[in-house]
């Protein structure tokens, strides 16, 4: 049996933990069809929490129900790429007058860099209408998924939302599934770029229960006939904090340790595996996230790291010698970047596991 763990962005894990019922509303929407609330879903959550994996799961559920799916990431030009995919779908559906019309409408192509110019917008919408009408006749519909919407060009997103709203008003079978970082997504919804999206079912993803991780590790290792004590399995599960990326990393490195050691996990090898997992988490998730922040924001983070738990804004301001309005500025930037999260009563905490320890280690270097 090969190592089943997948510590890699967007990779489907051997078991999707802590997500029972999350797609129920969406699946119900696929049965109800046009206008069902579950057909407009936004997943939010910290980096590495499993947003892309949920988009993939929604994709699979939609396919099982016979719906067509177009999956995109919100980098510049996604509207054009969705247009191209719609054209291809129409062609795959066969011939006939509608398909010929679709092909004619799309002939000029949609592959452009950012927002669609007005005449292409009209073409995009006509194409969508025709395709959805065709799918509706087959008793199915189209789901469009867009990942990383926090990075989307506002204009493009507004175009997509307006078109989807239009299709929904025409009772056409369209579903939209988005994913992005929580604070950035709520900014986006509050800016009014796409008021229609405020009605979406917003699902904030959290860590899985450690207990569930423990059960999953126990049976995965048992299946591979690894020898490991229940206490060590618990220790490994606790070291993940239920955080999806760490679940995969810890599982992966423990598996490697067991392979090296003829299928036995000793206390020493478990600690080695956990340490390797945390190092990898720091190198990938944490360093990538920190690479995007300004030196001032970094000061703010270091000031937070002095606390053992959530930090009070006033304390941070005092430590970095900044006034309240400046502190508020740094705070909202870091929230949008997904590095920190609100922790109640004006407090903030770290949104990524291990970030506090990483910052503290930097200070002591
Ligand atoms: N529910 C889950 N149970 C177990 N492992 C999971 C789960 N969801 C995701 N993972 C694993 O966690 C890692 C991160 O998942 P994913 O890439 O979907 O996160 P993300 O939220 O999209 O991260 P980012 O913000 O960096 O895009 C992957 O290795 C994936 O296999
Ligand atoms: Mg992702």
TrEMBL record:
Gene3D superfamilies: P-loop containing nucleotide triphosphate hydrolases. InterPro entries: AAA_16, P-loop_NTPase. GO terms for molecular function: ATP binding. Residues 31-169 form the Orc1-like AAA ATPase domain. Keywords: ATP-binding, Nucleotide-binding. This is ATP-binding protein. The lineage of its organism: Bacteria, Bacillati, Actinomycetota, Actinomycetes, Micrococcales.
